[in-house]
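#struct-help
A.M.: can someone run this one for me? Single chain, 242 residues.
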Amino acid sequence: MPPYPSKRMSSSPSSFQYIEYTELDSTNEEARRLLQSETLERLTLIRADSQTAGRGTQGRPWISPSGAGLYFSLVHPFSTLAEMQPHTVPLTPTFTLAAGAACAETIEELTGLRIQLKPVNDLYVQGQKLGGILVESLMSSNQCKALITGIGINLFRHTDVAAGCAQEARGNQPVSLQDCIAEQIFNQWHPDAIKRELCQAIAQNVHRFYQQLINGQEALILERYEHFKQQNDGKTHDSPED
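D.P.: on it. Structure tokens below:
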């Protein structure tokens, strides 16, 4: 395992193991390393202040400088998905939709912003990209060993993020929560607190959606995904209560 600095471990209120790093290449890659070394045996959150090789769908880079965003992976070792039969391999695309809907729902509830999902799993506000989700399966002997859900959300304005998106030249204009929420409200949140609270809230909701999917409620998950997919971009709310 690479010697990444300042690794911190704790338990979150929802019984997730919580591992924090100052810097990683990628939280998804760290999840793979820990799973392959059989270090993880329970639901785990892996968060990094920055990523040097963050990635999104189709292998595209995810610009992840320190002080800009929330970068984490939620790891479901196979044994934690207790309702699944040992021979069952998860349909990753469906879990991807569930994760997207869970993220959108959580951000809407916490901020009052109207979130739109664009295929497959990009989070948009007012036509600008707020974040994205990448769900991967770790396979072993044709069985699913774990699900790894990587999530990146722009929290604060940062020139490196804007420059990185411009370099991609795909027309994606980034936006952050700081851009979308009234200044007097956003400034009430401590940067560390918003990272931890948003991370844990999203993780809990993703886990809840996954359990619904496993329990046969696929139609409900698809309905929620379509809701956010079809939702029009909304205006910035002045407060979560608006």
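A.M.: thanks! The helical segments are 27-36, 92-111, 159-168, 177-180, 183-186, 191-214, 218-230.
D.P.: also worth noting: The first strand starts at residue 8 and ends at 11.
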